[in-house]
Amino acid sequence: MGRAERSWWPVLATVVLGVLAAATAWVRLGPEARGTVWAEDGGLFLRERLALGPIGSLLHPYAGYLHLVPRLVVDLVLLFPVPWYALVVSATCCLLTGAVCAGVFVLARDVVPSRPLRLLLAAVPVLLPTAPWEVSGNVANLHTFGLVLAPWLYAYRVRSWWGAGVLAGVAVLVGATEAQAVLFLPLLVLAWLPVRRDAGSARLLPLPVTVAALAAGVAQVVTALTTPRASAPGDPTATDVVAGWLLQTVGGLWDADVGSVAAAVVDAGWAVVAVPAVLLALVVVLGAAVAVRTGRWRAAVLAVVLAGGAAVVWTAALVANASADGRWSQADPGALLAATPSRYAAAAGMLLTGALVVAAAVLVDRAPGAVATGRRSAMVVRASRPGGPTAVVRSALGWCVVALVVTS
Prior knowledge:
Layout: H1 2-34, H2 39-42, H3 44-56, H4 68-77, H5 85-107, H6 115-127, H7 143-155, H8 161-175, H9 188-192, H10 207-226, H11 238-250, H12 258-268, H13 271-293, H14 297-320, H15 333-337, H16 343-364, H17 375-384, H18 388-407
Helix pairs in contact: 1-5, 1-6, 3-4, 5-6, 5-7, 6-16, 7-8, 7-16, 8-10, 11-16, 13-14, 13-16, 14-16, 16-18
């Protein structure tokens, strides 16, 4: 009986985490945002739901890709009185964001074993300073949180057929909602490695998620290739991509007031954001290198992929949408000071922060990468065990990164 009770504690803790994350997202929205029907929430998605019906609208493309979860949310919200529409949309979106946070907490356990650091990683979607700005609390940008969940979902090494079935369903929802999730499909390889030595069907446990993710990805690609987009594509210069990354993505990690970040740039030059960006990149590289050296190759891959994915997502947003390019490298001081947070930078910021937390978790963990037995193996482990001044400095650096994320 005691063992059965203890087995429920992880489930209960995960549910509590999801509820607290949802409550955090709700509070950070504020009463005005919670009570407002934004853009496609009350326009296109609702209009197409009424015109096409609950089934016909589900896989109807918009802006060149599928939006399965937002359309399901609109179906749900229509069960409530019309005057409640805005509040129910906001509440549902916050609950789904909390579910994403809980999902990251569970799915990241093989990469970030430390529960406190994994809790920090899971909280990133609701704690990012710019998250409430056009991203959280509305169905039009729910896909951003699906993008955050995708790498952890695809890389996870599932333990049971029940879990494989549940995660396959989640993979369909994520893949059929966020087209950019295809960027992380190569991480499905991690779900199969190392090759299981179990007899029978246990070796095929990753198959349901793999099939579901690939099917959803193919559906998004076909939709993108066969559906015209109304928005004009962008033609950003390399300097605009970098300047926007520094101002919006890196600056937005610590301050939702992009104008104040721009003021610092105007006063002291781009170095005020370029230097922190270089330091963040070095932290990710160092964390990945230490992970490789200590045998934590999953952590190394995730740190690099999350950071690289952040850069790709930001660049792709500017290439796909002319309206997303603020021409930051060419803007006059007045235009820079008037800048507001970009919803595209929020997605990149969540991925980049995730990479930093993974790297920090590696740096502060002084345990060896594997447990060895036998005299010879013990000698190898002792020789490779991190220790001495280098380990102290590395651990201090990791905790500094954690402190920066917590205080942002």
